[in-house]
Each structure stands twice: as C-alpha cells, then as structure tokens.
Write a structure and sequence with these properties.
The protein is mainly alpha-helical. It is 65% helix and 9% strand. It is built from seven helices and three strands; from the N terminus they run αααβββαααα. The N terminus is likely disordered.
C-alpha cells in the first residue's frame, strides 16, 4: 500500500519539470486583453475543425508568420536606405560610367540605365523646355514613347509626378547642351 503514494509523488515531481521545460522553450509576447480575447475565439473555432482544416489553418498561420518576418526585414532595409539619394521621388543619384558611355539614374529606388546618346537626348529635352512644368511633360512623353520601363520601374503615374521634377531639376543644374 505504501507504493501507491510513492508513484503519485514521483509523477507529481516529473510533471512540473515537463511544464517548466515547455514554458522555457516557448517565448510568447505579453498578452494584451485583445490578444487574449482573440486566442479564446481561435480556440473555440479550432475545437470545431477537423484534421484537414487544422492542417490548412497551420499552413496559413505559417505563411502569415513568414510574411511578418519579411515585413520586418523590409522595414529595416527601408530605414537604413531612407536617407540615401535616389530612394524616393524627391532625390536622385546619378552614376556615370568612367568613360562616359552610360548613366544610371536612381530615383524612387529604381535604377534606370541610359546609354550616352539617350542621356544626350534627355539633356536636350530638359534644356529645350520653357520651364519646369514643360520639362516634366516632355520627359514624361519621351519616357512613355521611348522608355516605358522608366515609367513603370520608377512608378511614375503622370506628367506631374515628383520623380520627373527631380530628374528635370537635376539634369538642368548638372548638364549642358553641347553642339
């Protein structure tokens, strides 16, 4: 008869160790009242699901978890590059090849490659414009006609887009027309 209490005591001692190990391994954020309510609702729903539905729910949860990680990584990258020229519509970074044969204009995180002849045409378009507005329209029409990739990649939505203003002003202030 004395053996039964020993078994119960041994099982009681083993049980807390298992619980402590599980709690240490799983890190959970501090539960807010909203989160607690959502978890209760989720538990009620999952209790009603069959195994196939639970597998699908787990797959979807893993996708959501992955997307959250990607969003965090992208946010970190965006914060690091936010102050670099060319990362938005209001700034530009121009990289000219050492031999002057090509140019890369970076605006709104888009790298647009131009051969020397194309760059000359762009400079001519800007300098031929009556004013900034006319230059923006002329650039937009040129890109729409000749280089739709610049419109698409830079996410230029119209001839009034700030990215065009940035390009125009940089080109006017940096390059001259050679005859």
């Amino acid at each position: 008869m004395t053996k039964k209490p020993v078994k119960k005591a041994a099982s009681k001692k083993a049980s807390p160790k298992k619980t402590a190990t599980k709690k240490a391994a799983v890190k959970r954020p501090a539960a807010s009242s909203e989160r607690t309510g959502l978890m209760v609702d989720l538990k009620k729903i999952t209790d009603m699901l069959d195994e196939t539905s639970l597998r699908q729910l787990i797959r979807q949860a893993l996708i959501l978890q992955h997307n959250m990680r990607v969003d965090e990584i992208n946010k970190g990258i965006k914060e690091k590059t936010a102050n670099k020229p060319g990362m938005d519509r209001n700034s530009i970074d121009v990289v000219e090849a050492d031999d002057g044969s090509s140019f890369v204009l970076v605006v709104n995180r888009s790298r647009n490659f131009f051969a020397r002849d194309e760059m000359k045409r762009i400079v001519n378009i800007c300098h031929a414009a009556r004013d900034e507005r006319d230059g923006m329209i002329s650039l937009y029409n040129f890109f729409k006609r000749e280089r739709i990739d610049v419109i698409n990649n830079t996410e230029i939505f119209s001839s009034t887009d700030t990215a065009l203003k940035t390009m125009y002003n940089y080109i006017i202030n940096t390059y001259t027309v050679r005859k």
